[in-house]
Amino acid sequence: MSLYALPIVFALFTWWFSTGAILYLDGLPRRTFRWSLAGATVLLGVAFYGLAVSSRDASVSGAFIAFTCGLTAWGWHEISFLMGYVTGPRKSLCPSDISGWKRFLFAVQTILYHELAILVSAAVIVALTWGGPNQLGSGIFFLLWGMRASAKLNLFLGVRNLSEQFLPDSLAYLKSFMVKKPMNPLFPVSITVATVIAVLFAQRAIADVASPFEATAYTFLATLMALAVLEHWFMVLPLPAEALWKWGLRTHEVQQPTDQTSPARPSTPFSPRTAAALPGSRLRTQPALSTYGASPPVE
């Protein structure tokens, strides 16, 4: 039983703690962002090394290392996006007179550099782990990428909960590309596909022919996919998802002191994670949000 319990508990804790830690760091004064990103970049380098080494280790410990490194590599992209360092060329509100594919194109422009950075990291991870018997790290990274893309599309098409409290004020313009409504046609497809994949992972984990490594690896994948499904449900159900990370959001609830390069955060917070669910001294100040209409992480 511990063969399954340990990966489940470890995945739950790292998902919860890493999300809260990123939210906490993102709510600190803007002058701390460079140090947060520098620390995250060091961890990214360690994660790449760990992925390369663990890819040759098809053991239970190798699965734990690969999972941790894959999640850590993804965390760099969360931090660099939420802090505004790697977002996109468009940093302004969605024009009120556009719709359809043009609105979608404008939305893509707000996250283009972020998506390209993820693509580069994915290529590096594939190159580092190519041919290894332990591909869990790659699987974790691609799973997070796919489910985050699904979350972004659902926020764009319309969901009940936009999780604005996870979105920093420097990226408030992203709200203008989100729509608040009970549900959209993509949501049932996203939930169904993700749930089926989670069940298939779970079946592989408990299969009689599964080795201890395979049981651990597929348990990690099934647990993370189940959490992604839960995050999707948070977008349409009347549940206070922010309560899970109340400790991480404390820094968002307090007015931060201003400096000469950026505005202060508002005392009322604007969600990750998926968030993804965004630093910002180079982002220009945005106008009020009253023009958003119907109006996050979400990342």
From TrEMBL:
Superkingdom, taxonomy of origin? Bacteria
**Mind telling me which InterPro entries this protein's record contains?**
Photo_alph_chp2
Pfam families from the entry?
A: DUF3623
> Transmembrane stretches, by residue range?
6-25, 32-52, 64-83, 104-130, 185-206, 218-237
Which residues does the annotated region (Disordered) include? 255-299
- Per UniProt, the ranges with Polar residues bias are 255-271, 283-293
Keywords carried by this UniProt record: Membrane, Transmembrane, Transmembrane helix
Q: What is this protein called?
A: Putative photosynthetic complex assembly protein 2
Specify the species.
Afifella marina DSM 2698
